Amino acid sequence: MIYDIVILGGGPAGLSAAVQAKKDGVENILILERDRELGGILNQCIHNGFGLHTFNEELTGPEYAARYIKQVVDLGIPYLLDTMVLDMTDHGETKIIHVINEESGYMTIETRSAILTMGCRERTSGAIGIPGYRPSGVFTAGTAQRFINMEGYMPGKEVVILGSGDIGLIMARRMTLEGAHVNAVCELMPYSNGLVRNIVQCLNDYDIPLKLSHTITFIHGKDRIEGVTVAQVDDKLKVIPGTDEFIPCDTLLLSVGLIPENEITVNAGVEMDNRTNGSIVGELRQTTMPGVFACGNVVHVHDLVDFVSEEAVLAGKGAAKYVKGTLDTNVTFTTANGDGIGYVVPQQVAMKNVEENVTFYMRVRQVFENKVVNAYIGDQLIATKKEKKLLPAEMVNFKIAKEVLEKYPAGEIRFVVEEAQK
Amino acid sequence: MKKELTCITCPMGCQLTVVDKNDDGNFEVTGNTCKRGPKYAINELTNPTRVIPTTVVVRNGMLPRLPVKTAEPIPKGQIFEAMKAINQVVVDAPVKIGDVVIENLLGLGINVVSTKNMDRC
Ligand SMILES: Cc1cc2nc3c(=O)[nH]c(=O)nc-3n(C[C@H](O)[C@H](O)[C@H](O)COP(=O)(O)OP(=O)(O)OC[C@H]3O[C@@H](n4cnc5c(N)ncnc54)[C@H](O)[C@@H]3O)c2cc1C
Ligand code: SF4
């Protein structure tokens, strides 16, 4: 049997894309998930604050996931758990997905279209070169989250956190609630990499110090971590001599960033964007390989699941159109990141597929106050997005109406941070 | 009185300004994107509360821990007391989202509820 759409990963992106494709009339859909349950990373994010504007209710991660799992079940979309995708190969009209399943062993699945939703993984201590041994007691924040929230295992009692990403902030509070003492959160940059709300409710609420412009210069201990040396850095991120301080701890959590999980994508030959570490995608999240779509954290790291679900709807629509043969492949616009902008997704727009507007997701490179993001085609200003404060930690979503874009036959849409004009 | 604070109700994290011109509890809130902002700000200045998301021990489930939350926000000052009470609880699978795990936590009139469906296995 040949499937219409196979979805690689059963997290929020995969679930939402599946639901949309089914609603758009595609029958033969299959979701593949390596874990023992659907829901992805949200199963370990037990804190509240999800989906407030989508569901008008403040949900925890598992509750948010459950909403989508219920839709998948109600729509009768089949899924396989404990099924690890190893590889995807392109055969023109169809793709072959190579998987290992706990019961059936190795097998191949043939499909017309595939949606990549493998999410992301955390950077580890190997990825950041701190001198010292690699004793036990050093975890990524997400690993600690899984241990505590799902397995019921507390990693330690005296904690230091490196990196102020959201997972690190959330874990600072979580470990404090469970009786640990969090000595400090150290952030190399002069600003936090997490959402302001998490600084407020996870650090300030519990008087946990956030040491900006600080890094760890040494990890002490050989078998078990005994402490860390923390030092201040200057504006070139170089350690300032004489500022080092020893902080004893039995646990070090790393919250130093996420990377899209794209081995399968790269091996399949899908074209990548080195700014996002994800694939190049269009307005309906089509990749450069016909029939292959991608959405969620595998495309670019989202800070909020709400945006992931939104993006996945596009991929679901796109794959449904592809299966029905109604997807337009003529690229009208490409996008570019100008001054102050780190990346823009989507990288391409085929206007014939656009319904009402296109939302462009982007991240700024540094903190900006009282500036705007402007969109240009050539030297023509086509749209402006005002934000009181632009933070690298908070993705900008910039919606541009179809009517505005339609005025231009083709070209490059360039996004830049500029002074607000009165 | 004038105070700046961040609304933590949702990830938008709006920067709110609260002004109490005559210091008589007549708060004027600006900077919010939605109507939850003013509600949060006034609450935060008069009686700050938080929802507590945590876990309890579950037996015969797919996992050894079940995520739970307080169904309503509880006073900030009682968070650790609440954690102590919640950590005493042991439940048995199957459990459904919304099932009450503790009734009337610390006499606050607020329940602790499950946030995950967990089958027996
Ligand atoms: C540790 C962590 C904590 C986070 N906390 C929050 C938070 O508190 N709030 C928030 O809004 N966002 C949070 N995020 C962001 C979060 O990733 C997104 O909100 C959302 O979960 C992303 O959805 P996704 O479907 O793209 O990825 P995921 O949720 O990661 O789902 C990807 C799925 O694909 C599966 N998969 C991957 N590779 C394969 C393979 N080869 N074969 C089969 N299956 C595979 C995975 O098992 C997983 O189930 C967090 C992210 C991480 C990593
Ligand atoms: S005011 Fe509304 S939109 Fe802004 S953070 Fe609060 S709840 Fe969110």
From TrEMBL, chain A:
UniProt-listed Pfam families: Pyr_redox_2
SUPFAM superfamilies recorded: FAD/NAD(P)-binding domain
PANTHER family reported for this sequence: ANAEROBIC GLYCEROL-3-PHOSPHATE DEHYDROGENASE SUBUNIT B (PTHR42949:SF3)
Source organism per UniProt: Acetobacterium fimetarium
The protein, known as: FAD-dependent oxidoreductase
Keywords: Oxidoreductase
Domain FAD/NAD(P)-binding: from-to ranges: 3-301
UniProtKB/TrEMBL annotation, chain B:
Protein species of origin: Acetobacterium fimetarium
Record SUPFAM superfamilies: CPE0013-like
Pfam families, alphabetized: DUF1667 (PF07892)
Domain of life: Bacteria
Name the UniProt record assigns to this protein: DUF1667 domain-containing protein
